[in-house]
Amino acid sequence: MKKLFTTLSILVISVCAFSQTNQVKFGIKAGVTFPTIAAEGGASAYDGPEPLDYKNNISFYLGGTVDFPVSEVFSVQPGLTLTGKGGKAQYYDSNYELLNLYVFEGSYKSNIMYVEIPLNAVLNFKLGGGKIFFGGGPYFGFGISGRIKTDGIAQSGGNSVSESTARDIKFGSDKDFKRGDAGLNFLAGYQLNNGFNIHAGYGLGLKTITGRSISYYQEKNRVFSVGLGYAL
To answer: Would 82 be classed as within a structural domain?
Structure first.
């Protein structure tokens, strides 16, 4: 929280200082995300189950940017984005498996919404009727809401029953997921002279988001995105 507050304060001061010039450009962007979660680490019979093998989910993002040109080809671009993350996987859970009292097998899906603050260094090069751009930098994220859904077959005492559950995600170090996220993001795209652009990005989470005080594996966000934008 302290890092997030410090970053926000710096961004506010920067906007106030640089907005007095005519070079500052504000932008809006929106698009589709294809998030997943990278689960790392192993397990043994003594410390817990193997990590889930996550696949890509589908969500969206919506945000804004402030572009501070430093030269004709280089600019600093902070922003604020609402970003959908999460993942889906095949899920297996067993209690007292040796006694065959309860086994659940099915699908698991998490949708997590983050407020994200990226701070990118961007290179711009003129090309045709516009410019190409690419860059990257750190980001800081804050989880605000989410849902977990499971669908599958539960077997207990020789009987099989279809089960479907959905619930809100709880954030905290001893809950489903930690609220904070941080990492690196990369972007590239093409912008027309009229301000419209098409772009793609990739978010590489470096901070473990796993909650429930789990120590035997780590989960980190991975997000590929594509979208459209407009520089005001």
So the answer is: yes
